[in-house]
Write a structure and sequence with these properties.
The protein contains 8 helices and no strands. With 134 residues, it is mainly α.
Length: 134
């Protein structure tokens, strides 16, 4: 997920305007708007101020190699689904869409233990129906 998308999702999930975040972060509205639109090169200090204003924590990692994420059937299913974005947008509420998507993936991954097999696309479809009804 791109930085601008994460910033926008967090801001919208909090029900905030760019102007209110700008005031809290001590940054300009155009600066934040540019970041949300994928433009600009923010400093770590600016990102830290934005994270604080959005009630988040900034994590920075420096390393030689990207960590290899564990295989996740849930992540693969979510990535290949046409319905996930629609359902995530509908149920995210006060949470960011990225956080809601991560919870959906975690739920699918935990189903593997319960089912005794990896979840299928049919299992994802049933889960999306259930979440949307809730």
């Amino acid at each position: 997920m791109e930085l601008g998308e994460v910033l926008r999702d967090r801001r919208k999930a909090a029900g905030r305007t760019i102007a209110s975040v700008a005031v809290d972060a001590g940054l300009s509205v155009p600066y934040i708007a540019n970041l949300e639109n994928g433009r600009g090169n923010p400093t770590l200090a600016a990102l830290d101020r934005l994270a604080t204003a959005l009630g988040a924590r900034l994590d920075v990692r420096i390393g030689d190699e990207e960590p290899i994420p564990p295989r996740s059937t849930g992540a693969e299913l979510v990535a290949s689904s046409d319905r996930v974005d629609e359902v995530v947008a509908a149920v995210a509420g006060g949470r960011s869409r990225a956080a809601t998507r991560r919870r959906l993936i975690a739920t699918l991954d935990s189903l593997e233990v319960l089912l005794g097999r990896p979840p299928s696309s049919a299992d994802l479809s049933r889960l999306l129906d259930l979440v949307k009804l809730a």
